[in-house]
Design a protein that fits this description.
Elements: H1 2-21, H2 25-40, H3 43-47, E1 50-52, H4 65-72, E2 76-83, E3 88-94, E4 101-103, E5 109-111, E6 122-128, E7 132-133, E8 139-140, H5 146-153, E9 155-161, E10 182-184, E11 189-191
Parallel strand pairs: 1-2, 1-6, 6-9, 9-10
Antiparallel strand pairs: 2-3, 4-5, 7-8, 10-11
Length: 194
């Protein structure tokens, strides 16, 4: 059963990756701008004092410009940092994106070692990347489970962030998969909280 689910997830990764490769740079930029505007209009963003961002990879929806808006609005910002010793992520506060970031273990921008790990696991809004999402709050990541392990250590509203091309009808779920509270795309805001 587990192998069947893993094979289905890998098939989804391949399908969605092929869709994303067909998107042009201008199309990605315009879709990212629409998604950022949609997120900025939502209550979880407006009321959040603490936001966990992610540094988007080239094929991911670009939430990065919201970082500046978050700082301007007085929000506190955190990003995941990979801890190689135990192969997990931890949430760390950044105060200046120019000086607090470095290229991390996977070639992704992350907080430098001098940035403090968050003392509290309570965040108001947690932006979550992934390869594929469904509108029931399920996601497929890159296959290592790192983000699911991080999400299990944090409290707050979790929001999957994706292009419409990354949304599928249904994601196969394993026991370790963490369900998200919201899903954001350039054309959808789905809030699954009760």
């Amino acid at each position: 059963m587990q192998n069947t689910i893993r094979e289905a997830k890998q098939s989804l990764r391949n399908q969605v990756s092929a869709r994303l490769k067909r998107m042009g740079l201008g199309e990605r930029a315009a879709a990212s701008a629409r998604a950022r505007a949609l997120l900025a209009a939502q209550a979880p963003w407006k009321t959040a004092q603490w936001v966990l961002f992610f540094a988007p990879l080239p094929e991911e929806l670009d939430v990065w410009p919201l970082l500046t808006e978050a700082f301007s609005a007085g929000k506190r910002v955190a990003l995941p940092r990979f801890v190689a010793e135990n192969r997990t992520y931890e949430a760390c506060q950044i105060q200046d994106p120019e000086s607090d970031l470095q290229v991390g273990h996977f070639g992704i921008r992350e907080p430098a070692s001098r940035c403090a790990r968050l003392a509290s696991v309570r965040l108001d809004l947690i932006l979550v990347p992934g390869v594929a999402f469904d509108l029931q709050g399920c996601r497929v990541g890159r296959g290592k489970g790192y983000y699911d392990r991080l999400l299990r250590t944090l409290c707050g509203t979790t929001c999957g962030v994706a292009f419409d091309e990354q949304v599928v009808e249904e994601i196969p779920v394993e026991a370790h998969d963490v369900r998200l509270n919201c899903v954001l795309t350039p054309t959808h805001w789905v809030d699954l909280r009760p």
